Amino acid sequence: MRFLSVGLNNPRRPWMLLGGGSMKSNEDSITIEEIPVGTVPKWLHTHFVNQAIDPRPISTGGPPKILVIYANEGSRRQQMSNLSDIGFAFDRTLHHTLESLKSSLMADLRIPRKISMGPAFDLVLHNFCSESASKLSFPLINPLPNMHWGEGKTTALSELHSFLSKESSIESWDGPGIHSFTKVLRDIEAKTGGTHPDFLTSRILDGLQHIGIPFTLLDIEGIIMLDHASPISKSDQELLHALSKIRPIHQLTHPGSYRLGLHGFQLIDDFPVTDLNSLPDWIPRHEISNQRDMPIVDRVFVNREDQSFDASISIARSILEHEESATVLIVDPAYEENQSRWNKMIQDIGLPISGVKRPVTQSPLGHWLHELANIGSGPNSFSMEKLRLLAVQESLSPFSVFHDNDMHSEILPEPDIELLSKIARSEHILGGPGALQRWMEALCRPPKNDEKGTSRESTQWWLIAIASSISPLLEVSDRKLLSEQRLLTGCYSGKALEVPSPPSNGDEWFRDITRQIDTSIVEESLDGISLPVVSIIQTIITEHEALRALQSSVGQAPPRGGIDWVAEISSILKSTNLPVPVSGVSSRLRVMTPKDALGCSSDVAILANTAASSWNLRSLKIPFIGEMERHRYDLLRPDTPIIKARHYISHILNGSNKTFLIDPSSDKSSPLAAPIEEILPYCKTSIHFDPKSEDNLGPRELKQHDGILIQQMKASVNPPLNSSAITIPLDRDLQRDRERRQPRKADDEGYLPEEYRNRVISFDYEDLTRKSPDGVEPPRNSTRWPVIGATSNGGKNSVTIDPRPFNPIPSGSDVSDRRHGYSDGASQEIQLWSPSRLQEWAKCPRRGWLTRGLKIRDEETQSEDLDPRIHGDLLHQIHHNLICEILDMEEQVEREIGEVIGAQLPFNLSNSGLSEQEIMKEALEILDKLAPWLERSDGVSTFRLRMLTGMSHREWKSWLSNPSEAPLGGRIGAMIRSEMELSDSMPIALEWEISSGTDNGMEISLNPNETSPNQIQINTIMVNGKIDRVDIIPFDKDGNQWVDTEGSNEVAPLRLFERDDWKPRRRVIIRDLKTSEKKPSDRNKEGLLNELQLAIYARSWELNHPGDLVVGAGISTIGHSTEHLVEPSAKYRSELENLAVGETTSLTSGLHRFPDESNNPKSDSFRAWMAQRLSVALGVAQGAVEGRVHPTPSKSACRYCPVSSICIVKMEDDY
């Protein structure tokens, strides 16, 4: 192919110095020659070899000594590598880029060393600019002396100054701030004795005028400048013209249009030499030609641009496998963004990769060092999330050993993660100013009864040790806390806690923390590159020492601590890059940007990611340079990016024997970039990339392809690594298939046929409370019991008796059945159950196994609002404390009826003799003790205060200053109002432990004829837990007789209808307190028919109190309106309805009977309900012991499941 030279036909003219002044023409010292596009000419390479093997000067017959200027570092290294492969030593100082040549000239001209650019300099520069801004040196940018000067302003001015210096436009620029910024840089230069890179070229030009020939150019005959894309910066042009006056420059360019960018940069507007007589004498004799064969381009179509990676690697792997000496160059315009992905794919095919520049904070050590330094600063200082993450990390210890490490002591400075989360929730501790004080105040309080004191004090000690070790980095108010002895006294032992000696300043803390790091550790990143920790530490220390040295030389006082020191170290950690490991092995496969590929050659080139979205051809954006400035100073021409892109593409096509163009344009959303569109005429062959073809798959894709084949019931190419795992992708489909096959059609009685029971794997909780359709007998009167609801021909659903635990039929796939617990599963050895644990297993055995057995759940995050659990606990505690104070009770201690009557103590709040306003005062005082955080004025505290009390923040502060009787308001007021209505019941226990304080728990059992559905013997279980509230009701209307002394002294039988001789001594109501936004009636239905704890609590009380009979149970809902609901025993329904003991319900009357009864039952439905719920609990526990951990997903069960994120068979909810 022959490119015609166009656009260069202007007559010769003297070269004009930028800025308007003319200087003597140096046309004779600059010559131009057009060479074929793509490679270094053979005659030049031959000369490099001759120059290396013949060191004689030209005067004695040796080859001329020539210095070469390359377009970039990549092409320079490739050429030197080619020379090294020949086996001769050569003078590397004769091979330069413009930047490396400047460094050599700087040394030759005795210019002061170049100031190192990096995080240290950026911080010093910002401080200088901030100080200058306070003196109004930048009036247009910072018009007020006390106006904050942000780092962004310094960065913007630095970027503008760098660009203008390259374009030699600083002196003529009259925009904002640049001349004051220049003064700042010169001030730094004067104080450091160095040279800022922005001034280097101008200093070299000055030196060349006054000093003479530099040493680098002393013994060379001339300079050859290889192809450069147009344009290059104006300062570089000035430098090249100045060098041409010292040594002649012979420029090698390409044929083609200068305007379009094909020709490349040209120093002077002159015709190229066309005959040997016009060549300078120092140029080796050679044939002058610019002809080149037409490039060979194959067009490879992909379905979308993302497949460019796979297509490129597939082509490269094929070439490298078949040709041992072949080299491949992949050109990606978006390589900087895609470097990690390319490295991973290249590593997969077994080739060396280059490291990626990453900030220190992307290494574990750097990240945790940054987090530790910042834990006391910012809006999230000492937040629960930060403390929890710091507690579980193992990259560095937050403090050095400062105490005697007694292995036998239970109190050590080690945190309890669960306790941290619990305190953050209960005390509503959010990160930010004052958080450390709230933590220390909360942790110094004595542990509660249900807390382990040693664990609480260990957590307290750990937090104090952290605060003391980083005290120089804390705010003054936080540092003062460490001198309050009250906060430093152990909450459990009462002894003063030993704390580490605080460092005197931030630098001392930094030295201490880096010294104690274990340097033997090697960090391995995801790309497989290992990095010794010692090199990371050395990198951080070196940059920090460089900052201190630079601050010392310019006279800046470094911060000693506080937020300024933290901001400084954070900037260093975020800006400093990790050392890039070098493999030391050259690769036959390289990936470069088009700019870096200029001057490089290979056997095969691959153009990847060629869509317009991947190649940014927009003009560079520089701060403070708008359209007016761009035209006025002739800067940032909008066509420059596409001109350079054409030049790069022209070189890439001709710099290799063959080029593959990866074309994603079949996807209409990925049109080709403009320079790529222009080369389509060269494409002669079209190939369609098949990503599923085995030849195009890498190791990872081959495994994926085998998996797809197995999923399609086809033989895989390679055997699976684990044959037991190949059915995992089918789990979801199998589960959905089970759900579709679940029978739903009712029989003639309106319920699911009995033979289908084992095919049921889920049910709708609403089916537990449905009304029986017309013509269908309620379950209690059905011919069989228990029944499962089904859909009749009329489309109506019948009610269901809880069918859990499910025992579905195995699928027949042994591997799948074992994995899901349908056969041999994860058997459990649970010695002690709780109602909540049983409920988790009942909802879904897999959920129970993962959350309770394996302790797996999503990591908890703290929201700005009060945690719903804490809101509930707070109302619970207010309720309990209020009753205890007024009725002279204690939590977990049963009330003696004789003492109450003998001492004439009030039976309940209603007859306590206190008015509602007096009780409200008591409740508010309790609230103040339990929730001191309500005094805060933030939005959450204000909202919760209004919700709880009905008061505003101002009203609350006023009440606290003068506690007095208050009208009922908020949810506390509603709770008191509802409590005052319970005039006929007597609370006798709060938070009562059903195991009576023993460690073994309460034994729960049933006789075979009481278990449903199969009336078989089920193993007993041991249960523990606490009943929220236990009330008793009187035997007379006047409330004088609470105990029947003639009652029985044996445990109340479940089948009470068979024991006419049994009489209760006391009649009991079990209440479970819940805070809920649901309707109280709906919450009561859920508690009775879905949950297990009410029945467990009721039976446990009876077992612990022979002679007591539970005559009612229900949910007391504390919410916007508080209601005490009671499901009464049928025998006592009428009596309870006439007593003020709460609103009675009738949920069990038509549902429950004992399984051995007929459809004309004699039993009490309430007692039968209790037996059925206990049977479910026993069956659930039995299934867990036997290892039945199969999933039973449903929308209601999966909605708030803490392990749904790792469950492949979860059921998605509708939103």
Describe this structure in words.
- Helix content is 37%, strand content 9%.
- A hairpin with a 4-residue loop joins strand 19 (1108-1118) and strand 20 (1123-1128).
- Helix 4 (119-134) crosses helix 6.
- A six-stranded parallel beta sheet has the order 10-7-11-12-6-13. Strands 14-17-18-19-20-21 form a six-stranded mixed beta sheet, with helices on both faces.
- The protein has 1215 residues and is of the alpha/beta class.
- Residues 1-27 have low confidence and may be disordered.
- It has six domains: 27-112 and 203-278, Rossmann fold (3-Layer(aba) Sandwich); 119-194; 297-354 and 585-689, Rossmann fold (3-Layer(aba) Sandwich), CATH 3.40.50; 361-524, no CATH class; 868-906 and 911-980, no CATH class; 986-1013 and 1025-1178, no CATH class.
- The radius of gyration is 42 Å and the shape is elongated.
Summarize the structure.
By secondary structure, this protein is an alpha/beta fold.
Q: Helicity range of the residues?
A: 25-40%
Class computed from helices, strands and strand pairing: alpha/beta
Oligomer: single chain
CA radius of gyration is 42 Å
